[in-house]
Amino acid sequence: MIRFQPAKFGQSEVPEVQSYDPYSTVTAYRGAPVTYDTTNAGIIIFAGATAVVDLLGIMLHDVVAGVSDDPAGKCVVAKAKGQEFVGQCVNGGSNPDVVLTDLSSLIIGEHYGIIINTAGGWAVDTSETTSDIVEITRIDDDLDIVWFKILDSVCQEGV
């Protein structure tokens, strides 16, 4: 499965990112949506729920038990607001581990949820239309991927 990653970067040639110190017990893998925990001195924590709120962004490095594989030892996050990401789709209602290979029924502008599979990878969940998190902006049925924006209503800012 292709993990979530930045796809378009606005006017710059790199995604807009923010770096944080990892909390000592946090485990969040590259491509995971994360949020900011003000209770733990502003440390990044894994956003492990289907209905994500206050989404800060998408992890660009793995952090396992508080240790990041980033050269500086930080949690590097591509900011959620105003950026476009790429990922794959699943039907979480039937099987979150099987990537959809026929995206012809998807519509640009539609809103969906996201879901984690058993291997820790995240995907756009085409069966989730009540907890909207992403908006489809482009569909590539040849590569079985979609481009998406994270909805402003679930983004966390000013952290």
Structural class, by secondary structure, is: mainly beta
Domain module count: 2
- Give the overall silhouette: globular
Number of helices: 0
The end-to-end span amounts to 30 Å
How can the largest sheet be summarized? Answer: 8 strands, mixed
Strand content: 35-45%
> Could you name the ranges where pLDDT drops below 50 across 5 or more consecutive residues?
none
Strand order of the largest sheet: 1-9-15-14-12-13-10-11
Strand/helix succession = EEEEEEEEEEEEEEE
Number of DSSP strand runs: 15
| Rg on CA atoms, Å | 15 Å
Percent range for helical residues?
under 10%
Mean pLDDT: 85
Structure description:
With 159 residues, this protein is mainly β. The chain has two domains: 75 residues, no CATH class; 71 residues, no CATH class. Helix content is 0%, strand content 42%. The protein is built from no helices and 15 strands. The radius of gyration is 15 Å and the shape is globular. The mean pLDDT is 85.
List the helices and strands and how they pair.
Elements: E1 5-8, E2 17-20, E3 33-37, E4 43-46, E5 55-59, E6 63-64, E7 67-68, E8 75-79, E9 84-87, E10 89-91, E11 95-99, E12 111-116, E13 122-125, E14 134-140, E15 145-150
Core attributes:
single chain, globular, 159 residues, 5-stranded antiparallel β-sheet, 2 domains, mainly beta, 0% helix
